[in-house]
Design a protein that fits this description.
CATH class of the largest domain: Mainly Alpha
Distance between the termini: 75 Å
CATH architecture of the largest domain: Up-down Bundle
Strand content: under 5%
Strand order of the largest sheet: 1-3-2
Helix content: over 70%
Largest sheet: 3 strands, antiparallel
Number of helices: 11
Number of domains: 2
Structural class: mainly alpha
Radius of gyration: 21 Å
Number of strands: 3
Order of helices and strands: HEHHEEHHHHHHHH
Length: 236
């Protein structure tokens, strides 16, 4: 019995440490300190966090489940690198889900909910003022997730959380107008609409906000890269 308890305790501790590593890596990805395509060596990650390769592997598997990391056989783990098609799909999905979620949030929001949203905006503005753009982007994503929580639609909120995570990678790759975050007051207007219990206005503002985010991305297809030297030099 004592052996079983020790084993269970060890497994619980390992799971907790793996979860902490996964959370720290997720935060670094959302804040663009780890960029798309960056290799995540198990040995290096383990050394940084002072944990075993087993714990690192568990953490990376969790991030792969969230589509923040890709694990390639015989090559290792890399921060995910969404394609232009995937980038469009992410924002199309958000445009389908989030306006209605904002509508529901405006119906259900309490004073405490509005205060939480305002705290997010204040933290976001402070990060921008101090030049911590990556952190401001992470807080911006959490703002959207918080609206989904207020809407009390748990299944949709889970989808939105995944889409917001993917959006962080998309923005890191394709953001052409980095001043957009500083220019936009959409979050302030959204909080006001939610605080005023104006669902139609909240829905309209969310639609416009997501359209503005999409317009700040460069999703034009570039010239196709040759697959081989022979293809590249063909006809020369």
């Amino acid at each position: 019995m004592n052996t079983q308890r020790r084993t269970a305790g060890k497994e619980s501790k390992q799971s907790s440490r793996a979860r902490n590593v996964a959370e720290d890596l997720t935060r670094a990805i959302h804040e663009h300190r780890l960029g798309p395509g960056m290799k995540l060596s198990e040995d290096e990650v383990g050394e940084i966090f002072g944990v075993s390769r087993t714990i690192v592997r568990t953490a990376l598997q969790a991030l792969a489940h969230d589509q923040l990391v890709t694990i390639e056989p015989h090559r290792g783990a890399f921060v995910a690198h969404p394609s232009i098609r995937e980038a469009r799909e992410v924002f199309e999905a958000r445009a389908l889900l989030e306006p209605r979620t904002a509508n529901s949030a405006a119906v259900r929001a309490t004073g405490a909910d509005v205060a939480i949203l305002q705290d997010h905006i204040d933290a976001e503005h402070a990060a921008l003022a101090e030049g911590r753009t990556g952190q401001a982007l992470r807080l911006s994503g959490q703002f959207h997730i918080e609206i989904a929580r207020i809407a009390d639609q748990s299944t949709i909120a889970e989808f939105i959380g995944q889409l917001v995570s993917r959006s962080s990678l998309v923005i890191a790759l394709y953001w052409k107008r980095r001043t957009a975050l500083c220019e936009s007051h959409a979050h302030d207007a959204l909080v006001k609409a939610i605080a005023d219990h104006d669902p139609e206005r909240a829905e309209e503002l969310m639609k416009g906000h997501l359209l503005d985010l999409l317009s700040s991305l460069d999703l034009q297809e570039g010239p196709r890269a040759p697959k081989s030297l022979k293809e590249a030099l063909k006809g020369q």
